[in-house]
Write a structure and sequence with these properties.
The chain has helices at residues 32-46, 59-69, 97-104, 145-153, 163-171, 203-215, 237-248, 256-298, 306-313, 320-329, 352-359, 396-408, 425-436, 532-544, 581-598; strands at 2-6, 22-25, 50-58, 86-91, 109-114, 157-160, 177-178, 338-343, 363-365, 373-374, 376-380, 410-411, 414-415, 449-455, 464-468, 476-480, 490-497, 500-508, 520-524, 550-556, 562-568. The protein has 599 residues and is of the alpha/beta class. The protein has three domains: 2-214 and 231-248, no CATH class; 256-329, no CATH class; 334-599, 2-Layer Sandwich (D-amino Acid Aminotransferase, Chain A, domain 1).
Length: 599
């Protein structure tokens, strides 16, 4: 089994169904609860178990604990779905009921690591109560027996490092594992207490009392954090590791009942994905309708009747359409967007992302400002990627520069920041088979029929059709020949943002010259060309490739099966790609609209 320790994530949006990425932070939230989760992760690593540390972790704290203990959990991880082989440990201080609902319906076994009473900082686990406000707490709603029982009935196990919380669970009739606290270092001398605790009934009293204490600091002595006594049982490190090891011995593979529950959870997740797809389609239709209005004005078409206007937007179906359309007619005040992009050059005006950012008036930085919280940090490595034939993965220099940029900058969203991005054809073929269950790559010396031969390197544009069997040429990759002989040759370029396919460009290709530029191109509604299942598969393929922003090339064969034949994390939009100027404007405006929504 794999153990997953999840720290809170506050600096960018995450999908509640996914386990978060490992996000190294120089200055994360510094509190005892965060330290305890770091110590728990290291203790699990000491037991020899496979453990992942996810969420926003403290680089220095983890390094110090690992150096003292001789063990370290796995980090540098991308988001993924939990599996039946996972035991996932999450803190109780999560305010959203949706996060706990997704966890309860997942195939993994979840443990709530409780360091405070339910409802004090996290959700109450009771219906009818909103997210807690730690400054205004109704004591009758916090830590009730109903909350403990509801946690258990949701399928969660409870661990704690507080004997009082463990007693409260037992009194409510709920099992709880008390693992205590341990530190892989000596705590030093603990001086005897010289001051009494200050009792306060409200935050204002705490502030007043603290001000009085700080006014006369002669009686105060600064102590190292491990030496501060508390109600939590501070054990030695070896005893703590043994407690953690013993706690995991109660877990086994999921039983039949849980498997049935998790199948229901899968259906719920697919249902929500389908709803997201419908909303995305509605938003694209609205954008097209608005663009139609702009074109009509541009062409000086006067006397536009209400009937003509309604004919341009008749296909909008969801109630949200009216709301979205109103927001276009009466736009809100635009806010400024701050984007950090690097370490590669972002000067080419044909870059699709650059055109969209210029459209929304974003301020683009290439050097991180530590004082700025960016809306987006976008990893960009064109120097070894799409514009220069050759390397398809990031060089060591690019990885170092990107790591420095990510560690220095604070942002709400991080796209394409994984050092492991590799867009080689060989890797795409392997990942495509994992996600779609069919092989894009073929063995040219065994396969019989037509195939596509092209370089494994990027942006070489040397593809050609070959008859197999044929000898394999070094540094070439061979792919299944995708064709619909009786139909026009169509290729779709799908833009992916935040790991989701959002925009589609349909391209009519010349059959005898399929590896060059399109004869015609136009923007189409993405949900008209892919199903809800294919929408999820493209998203999963991008997760497998560690890419949040890219453009994928899609073809369909004579059986109407989808094939992803290329992926590009630095897409361009030029007259060669989309000849019609109005269509290019539509693509840019649609992307700008969705980009503002995502950020």
């Amino acid at each position: 089994m794999k153990i997953v320790i999840c720290l809170p994530v506050s600096r960018y949006k995450i999908n509640a169904w996914l386990l978060p990425a490992s996000i190294p932070m120089d200055k994360p939230k510094d509190c005892a609860g965060i330290r305890s989760l770091h110590e728990l992760a290291v203790a699990v690593a000491v037991t020899g178990r496979d453990v992942e540390l996810r969420g926003e972790f403290d680089i220095d704290m983890l390094a110090s604990l690992s150096e003292a203990s001789g063990a370290i959990p796995t980090v540098n991880l991308e988001p993924r779905l939990p599996t039946a082989d996972d035991i996932v440990i999450i803190p109780e201080g999560t305010p959203s009921a949706l996060d706990f609902a997704c966890a309860s319906l997942s195939p993994a076994q979840y443990v709530i690591f409780m360091q405070d009473l339910p409802g004090l900082f996290g959700w109450f686990f009771k219906s009818g109560l909103n997210s807690p406000d730690s400054l205004v707490v109704n004591t009758s709603d916090v830590g009730t027996a109903d909350s403990f029982n509801n946690i258990s009935e949701c399928g969660f196990s409870i661990w704690t490092n507080s004997s009082r919380l463990a007693s409260a669970c037992v009194e409510a009739g709920v099992s709880c594992t008390d693992i205590g606290i341990g530190y892989p270092r000596t705590t030093g001398h603990i001086p005897e207490k010289e001051l009494d605790f200050v009792a306060a009934e409200s935050p204002s009293q705490i502030i007043d009392s603290t001000d009085k204490l700080l006014a006369d600091t002669k009686g105060l002595e600064e102590l190292p954090s491990p030496a501060v006594a508390s109600e939590r049982q501070q054990t030695g490190w070896s005893d703590y590791v043994k407690r953690v090891d013993t706690a995991f011995m109660q877990y086994r593979q999921m039983d039949h009942i849980n498997s049935a529950r998790n199948q229901f959870g899968l259906e719920i997740r697919n249902h929500y994905d389908a709803i997201d797809t419908q909303l995305l389609r509605a938003e694209e239709e609205i954008e097209q309708a608005v663009y139609t209005m702009q074109i009509l004005r541009k062409r000086a078409v006067s006397n536009i009747s209400l009937r003509q206007f309604m004919n341009s937007v008749w296909h909008m179906s969801l109630p949200q359409s009216a709301v979205k359309l109103t927001s276009h007619i009466f736009p809100k005040l635009k806010r400024n967007f701050f984007i950090l992009i690097g370490p590669g050059s972002f000067d080419d005006p044909n870059y699709l992302m650059r055109q969209a950012l210029v459209y929304i008036g974003a301020e683009i930085h290439t050097v991180p400002d530590p004082k700025r919280v960016y809306d987006l940090v976008l990893g960009w490595h064109n120097s070894t990627g799409s514009r220069t034939p050759g390397m398809t993965s990031r060089s060591s220099e690019v990885k170092v520069a990107l790591s420095i940029m990510v560690r220095t900058a604070s942002a709400r969203n991080y796209w394409n920041c994984s050092p492991g991005i590799d867009i080689s054809k060989h890797l795409l073929e392997r990942k495509f088979k994992i996600v779609f269950g069919r092989s894009l790559g073929i063995n040219p010396e065994v396969y019989t029929g037509l195939a596509i031969e092209k370089s494994n390197e990027n942006a070489t544009h040397d593809g050609r059709i070959v008859q197999c069997p044929t000898p394999r040429v070094p540094d070439k990759t061979y792919q299944y020949f995708v064709d619909r002989p009786k139909d026009p040759l169509l290729q779709w370029r799908i833009v992916v943002m935040a790991g989701k396919p959002v925009i589609a460009i349909e391209r009519l290709m010349e059959r005898q010259n399929r590896f060059h530029h399109a004869l015609q191109s136009r923007k189409v509604v993405i949900t008209d060309i892919i199903s809800a299942e294919e929408y999820s598969q493209i998203s999963e393929l991008c997760r497998e490739m560690f890419i949040e922003y890219c453009e994928v090339d899609m073809l369909r064969d004579h059986n109407d099966l989808m094939w992803i034949v290329d992926i590009n994390p630095t897409p361009v939009l030029s007259p060669l790609c989309v000849p019609d100027a109005d269509e290019r404007k539509l693509v840019v405006s649609s992307m700008a609209f969705l980009l503002q929504k995502l950020l």
